[in-house]
Amino acid sequence: MTETMIAQWTGGKHLGKVDDLLEPRFENAGKVHDWRNHVGDAVEAIWETLTLEQRAAVAIEASNRASNEEWE
User: Each residue of 9-65: pLDDT tens digit?
Assistant: First the structure.
């Protein structure tokens, strides 16, 4: 992989902010298409111990799941 997870998170289809990784405020997640809803409790519990690169990787995976949500 040529670009870092952080670069993927802040660019391309994700357009996330580094601040979102530093302070995700999981308790304030929106109802629809919010990546924070797709981070499991176990990962959320150790979030502060993850590196920024690891947080970006988790956020990208969660964002991909959130973008696949279908609502009527």
Answer: 998 778 889 999 999 999 999 988 999 999 999 999 999 999 999 999 999 999 999
* pTM, two decimal places: 0.88
Helix H, strand E, coil C: the string for the chain is: CCCCHHHHHHCCCCCCCHHHHHCCCHHHCCCCCCHHHHCCHHHHHHHHHCCHHHHHHHHHHHHHHHHCCCCC
Q: Report which residue type is found at 58.
A: V
Place of tokens 């176990």: 42
